[in-house]
Automatic annotation (TrEMBL):
<dbReference type="InterPro" id="IPR029058">
    <property type="entry name" value="AB_hydrolase_fold"/>
</dbReference>
<protein>
    <submittedName>
        <fullName>Lysophospholipase</fullName>
    </submittedName>
</protein>
<dbReference type="InterPro" id="IPR051411">
    <property type="entry name" value="Polyketide_trans_af380"/>
</dbReference>
Amino acid sequence: MTTGSTTFPVVFESNGALLTGRVHRVADDLVERQPTVLITGSWLTVKEQMADRYAAELVARGYTAITFDFAGFGESGGEPRQFELPSRKIADIVAAARFASSLSFVRPGALGYVGVCASAQYALAAIAAGAPIASFGSVAGWFHDTESAAPFYGGLDGVRGRLERGAAALEAFHGDGTVVTVPAYEPGNDRAGMFFEMDYYANPARGAVPAWRNEMAEASWLPWLTFDGLSAADAVSVPTVFVHSDGCVFPSHVEALRSRLRGPVEIAWGEGTQTDFYDQPAQVSFAVEALDAHFTKTLRA
């Protein structure tokens, strides 16, 4: 094995859409079978953001990492574009796990998943739906339902207003195929997906990378605000680690999930805000230490 890293593109199908991903590994060929981790980031993001950041760290520790764009985002196919549709993303994770399991350089039975922020709740649902994932890691996981999400959007009145705008956008799409979009991030814009100050999405040195399209299909409010990211826990028995902090979203949900999951659960409680865990050295280092310890026991054994 060499100490240099290599990366190359892959494509696979999910419900008729061609998804584009990248394999990251430290190896001089494609023969050595390694424990492998699929990695995805927050809602409305692409692989070049949180996912590739964690891939680089885990590859340096001897894992193969696979990052990919969900249908409708980044380099992947799929229509409508920029549509945050949980059911589609869950299906994409199932497809990605089945694809990864078919690769000859992936150690059989040693496929893990790292979900950063919102994709953690989608991964949990995908595992419950039968995705061949042997071990799960959540980093600053966002697990919500309508009641817990409402305070982010001005309470239930804010939710109702967004659902109305989402319904109007869906009607436009059904009418003539128009995809009504709003900014994914714009401070002070109540119609944006994220409308409060977040340096991660404003800073080109962090998350505002060229590959990221700062748009959200406004119809996304319908599935996003009514999604239940907690209920799948009752059907999940794979070993799980939650990397979280008091400064991350929904810290009480981590403990609630811990009691509902059917398999062994570890919690690594650190310090920092939600977006610190996306890319900041101290928080990423803390998370990777916990993930490596977890996957060493569950994928390398």
